[in-house]
Automatic annotation (TrEMBL):
It is found in: Cytoplasm. Gene3D superfamilies: Mur ligase, C-terminal domain (3.90.190.20), Mur-like, catalytic domain (3.40.1190.10), MurE/MurF, N-terminal domain (3.40.1390.10). Its main location: cytoplasm. Keywords: ATP-binding, Cell cycle, Cell division, Cell shape, Cell wall biogenesis/degradation, Cytoplasm, Ligase, Nucleotide-binding, Peptidoglycan synthesis. Signal peptide: none annotated. It is an enzyme of class 6 (ligase). The lineage of its organism: Bacteria, Bacillati, Actinomycetota, Actinomycetes, Kineosporiales. Residues 345-475 form the Mur ligase C-terminal domain. This is UDP-N-acetylmuramoyl-tripeptide--D-alanyl-D-alanine ligase. Pathway: Cell wall biogenesis; peptidoglycan biosynthesis. Residues 121-321 form the Mur ligase central domain. Belongs to the MurCDEF family. MurF subfamily. Residues 490-514 are annotated as: Disordered.
Length: 514
């Protein structure tokens, strides 16, 4: 965090400074470490933000934050010690969330004044992977701060901003939404210099109401880019491509395959190895030497990420890096060495007994499940050339609204069409996956429906053979993440899987949105 004296912090957020008895405002330690909404995450010199959440009131943890070394706490009401004075330094405001966002906006403005580049990333799928790739690519420009994991909402974005310091040259912000206006609100906190829109799909369509509404919401990001900014759009997605008419920034269309028609950066000659990892020629017209097709510079990329769908993420990230001045050859080198940075996204583990576990159960929607199934099939042929059995262990895709049954049915049918060896649908919400597979022609033991993760684990333990490849995929709340971990450890179920922070101030870093 860019250092702020408590008195200046109070001025920025329009709050009242309260200090312990005998302390002089001018002598207080500055706030110069990242902010936290969880008292357990407070570091000395940091700011504690006492949000009130669904399950806890952050004001109850102000004493713990002060004891952990918080330089100040942002509160909506004074938290008093036995002597009647405040517990530690406090800035009292009318609305903690509004003050939190105002402080983050002040921070963004200060970073930009120092020459920092602010990049916003959104899409129905692939945001976190693209953000992770951007973090390593833009590190070539200078110190880069990026959204941790998928904390991409009204809590996670300000926390990310306030984790940046005076040396930050690039700020990469994943932006999610669960409804209209959410991304626009995030952009008011952190107006982007560069916007990246990856795709528009059916993730959370139950909350948005329709895919058209998802498109409208994702388009709020390019709308926030001004005439001096840049918008990277996936031209392979028609809904994304037409967002070019919703921005006054310079549009950089990108494509993941094909001739690159209409694109400035694209992938050509995509090929998958036995591990499902893509290699391709990265081509860019952003170079001044790219006068015609024959002069378009190119560099070879071999991704370490599993799944052909990551090509689109890599090309979008490459366009941002090229715009920021990273040479094409270096972009290709970094993309070729970047491994998975966030957990539970096509996380591949080779067990000692020869079983390969692919844990992709952080989140799920129809588009990401289709991509994961295709990646699983690409892994069918092992490094030795022999064909391996493939298992798709699929839980429920949540928040699909009225289309839920149909979408689950289609996933089951696709698994059969792709010739996945064994399909295991887990939980009541995934029953339609099993019925879809049966209607598509699955017979015997090719497809099964089990009640829960424990039953799935028992089935897999009984039937997995060396060389098998197992994909575990579901929405986070469906709970198959822990099943994937149990398969890796070959341990019995250990209770309910860990969840994300629940929205209360104590333990919050910001839940993921689509």
């Amino acid at each position: 965090m860019i250092p702020l004296a408590p008195a200046r912090l109070a001025e920025v957020v329009g709050g009242a400074l309260r200090v312990p008895a005998g302390a002089a405002a001018d002598d207080l330690p500055v706030v110069d470490a990242p902010a936290a909404t969880d008292s357990r995450a407070v570091v000395p010199g940091g700011l504690y933000v006492a949000r009130v959440g669904e399950h806890a009131d952050g004001h109850d943890f102000v004493p713990a934050a002060a004891a952990a070394g918080a330089a100040a706490s942002l509160v909506a009401r004074p938290v008093l010690a036995e002597d009647g004075g405040p517990v530690g330094v406090q800035v009292v405001v009318d609305d903690v969330q509004a003050a939190f966002e105002a402080l983050a906006r002040h921070h963004v403005d200060a970073l930009r004044a120092r020459g920092a580049l602010v990049v916003g990333v959104t899409g129905s799928a692939g945001k976190t992977t693209t953000k992770d790739l951007l973090a390593v690519l833009l590190a070539e420009v200078g110190p880069t701060t990026a959204t941790p994991m998928s904390y991409n909402g009204e809590v996670g974005l300000p926390l990310t901003v306030l984790a940046a310091d005076e040396g930050t040259r690039c700020l990469v912000l994943e932006m999610g939404a669960r409804g209209a206006g959410h991304i626009a609100a995030l952009c008011r906190v952190a107006p982007p210099d560069v916007a990246v829109v990856l795709n528009v799909g059916s993730a959370h369509v139950g909350e948005f109401g329709s895919v058209d509404a998802v498109e409208a919401a994702k388009g709020e990001l390019p709308e926030a880019v001004g005439p001096g900014g840049v918008v990277v759009l996936n031209a392979d997605d028609e809904r994304v491509a037409r967002m070019a008419g919703r921005t006054s920034g310079t549009v950089l269309p990108v494509r993941a395959a094909g001739s690159g028609a209409g694109a400035v950066v694209w992938a050509q000659d995509v090929d998958l190895d036995a591990g499902g990892r893509a290699s391709f020629r990265l081509r860019s017209r952003l170079s001044p030497s790219a006068a015609d097709e024959g002069d378009v510079p190119e560099a070879r990329v071999t991704l370490r990420l599993v799944g052909e769908h990551h090509v689109a993420n890599a090309v979008a990230a490459a366009a941002v890096a090229l715009h920021a001045g990273v040479p094409l050859g270096r972009v290709a080198e970094v993309l070729s060495t970047a491994g998975p940075a966030s957990r539970y996204r096509m996380e591949v583990t080779e067990r000692a007994d020869g079983v390969t576990v692919v844990n992709d159960a952080y989140n799920a929607n129809p588009e990401s499940v289709r991509a994961a199934l295709k990646a699983l099939v690409a892994m069918r042929r092992g490094p030795d050339g022999r064909e391996r059995r493939t298992w798709a262990v699929l839980g429920e895709m949540l928040e699909l609204g009225a289309t839920s049954t149909d979408e689950h049915d289609l996933v089951g049918r696709l698994a059969v069409r792709l010739n996945v060896s064994r399909l295991v649908a887990v939980g009541p919400g995934a029953r339609a996956v099993h019925s879809g597979a049966q209607h598509e022609g699955s017979w015997g033991q090719e497809a099964a429906h089990v009640a829960d993760a424990a039953a799935a684990l028992a089935l897999l333990r009984a039937e997995l053979l060396p060389g098998d490849v197992v994909l575990v995929k579901s929405s986070n709340a469906a709970g198959l993440r822990a099943l994937g971990e149990q398969l890796v450890a070959d341990a019995p179920p250990a209770g309910e899987p860990d969840g994300e922070p629940d929205g209360a101030s104590h333990g919050v870093r910001g839940a993921a949105a689509c």
